[in-house]
Every structure is written in C-alpha cells, then in structure tokens.
Amino acid sequence: MSGAGYLSASDALPLLTEAAREAGEIGLRFMRDGARVFDKSDNSPVTEADLAIDAHLAARLRPVSEAIGWLSEEAADSADRLSRRQVWVLDPIDGTRGFIAGNGEWVISAALVEEGRPLAGVLYRPTTGDLYHAGRGLGAFRNGQRLSADAGMAGATRHAAGPKPMFDVIRHALPQVERTSSLSSLALRIAYVAEGRVDVAFASDASHDWDIAAADILLSEAGGRLSTIAGADIVYNRPEPVHEPLLAAGSGRQAAIAALFPQHHFPRRAKR
C-alpha cells in the first residue's frame, strides 16, 4: 500500500479474492437454508443473502484504507466516493434472479476502480467454485489458467449472448450467428467472452458500475474490450453510475460489431 493509502492491483487482488470466497460461503449457506426475498424501491428483488454478503464485504474491505471510497449495489450511495482516487465497487450477488431461481448463474463481483477505470477485479461463482481474477497489466485468469478472448474477425462470429433485440441486429448482418444463453449474471456473461466461450455479449441499458467493473478488467486483460454499443469507453465512479447499452467482444471483431448498431434504441433490461 502506498503512503497515501492507495493499493496496487497486486495489493488488491488477494484482498478481493479472500473476501469473495468468504462471501460465496455465505451465499451457499443461504441457498441451502433459504433466504427471504424483498422488493427494492425499483421493484428489483433483493434477498437476505445479498444483504448479508454486502455486510461481510464491507467488514472485510472498508477498513483496508480510509482513502478508498465505496460503491455497492446494496448500500446507500454517497457523493464522498466522487472525490476519491480509488473506489471499491461491489455487487454482493450479481444475478440475484438466478440465485432465487436456484440455477447457479450468480457470482460475487468485486473490483477496485482507480480514476474511472477498473484496476483489479474478482468474480467468484460459488456453485461451481470458479474464481476469475484480473489486474491491470497482470493478465486474466480462471482458476489459475490464463484467459484469452477469441481474436477472430466479425465474419467468424458464431455465438452471441444478450437481449434478443440486440441479437437480431447482429443476426441480420451475420446470419450464421447463434444466440446462446444470456445467463442471469451480466458479469458472468462478459466473463464468458473473456474465456472464449462466447464471441460477443450485449447488455441493455441500466447496467451499473457494480454489474460490470470486475468483468471489464477481466475482459480487457484477456485481450477483449467492453464498450458502449456505440464503441465509447466506459467511465466508472460518475455521479450516476449507470451505463448505456454495452458490447463485449474480442479485439478482432469489437469495432466491426459496434458499427452494426448506429441508431438503434433498445428497451431497458429487467433488474437483476
């Protein structure tokens, strides 16, 4: 840690990994014993597990440094984070609907953002034990195995995941493309691109920093890119941490796929 209380990617990854693994055990316990479900003010679901994991992550990470701000889906937001160079960005359960359904498509998503961009990130999928981690300049890994996004060109695209209206646009130009499961977890959907299991992934608007920060650094370090559907870079830790429709793909096809979406407007996605 620097004298100012900031962390390097190498400093942050062990902290994020340990906290995410412990959080996963909490999630599995609630999955086994049952978790009450509540409606948030925006009518999206939240469970006892989300809240318990949020409290755990706060207890593990907030004391690390007073210099680092805080942004969690399940905690009250504060303008204090806007003046911080580094911010913890967390989704206690990304894929809450999948958690409720018991389909296993949920992850703990934990990242450290520095000056608007992810510095380090961890995704932990408790139901499979898969741990994804990446740090700026350090590479991307799943269970210790280095990840590499498929670098093929747009014409070689075979599998796309995401909302059907967005898939229909790409299918019109690339009729060989098949739509795969979108998964309950947006972070996991992007991680699949980093793994090369999916060529392209989309997200409708209304995704937030906590949904994508860890997956963003994972894809970037795997040689891919997460951008808006218009091809613009994503900036984190803004006053409203919400994003336009998104596109994730390997470097060989990302710009060409983005060019297929010049003037389209898509409905808001359901909250996760």
Automatic annotation (TrEMBL):
Annotated PROSITE patterns: IMP_2 (PS00630)
Which principal EC class is assigned to this enzyme?
A: hydrolase
Superkingdom to which the source organism belongs: Bacteria
Report the EC code(s) recorded for this entry.
3.1.3.25
* Signal peptide residues on this chain, from the entry's feature table: none
**An MF annotation (GO) of this entry:** inositol monophosphate phosphatase activity
Q: Which Pfam families match?
A: Inositol_P
Q: Which InterPro entries match?
A: Inositol_monophosphatase-like, Inositol_monophosphatase_CS
Ordered alphabetically, the record's keywords are:
Hydrolase, Magnesium, Metal-binding
Q: Which CDD domains match?
A: CysQ
Regions annotated as coiled coil: none
Family (UniProt): Belongs to the inositol monophosphatase superfamily.
Protein name stated in the entry: Myo-inositol-1(Or 4)-monophosphatase
What taxonomic ancestry is recorded? Bacteria, Pseudomonadati, Pseudomonadota, Alphaproteobacteria, Hyphomicrobiales
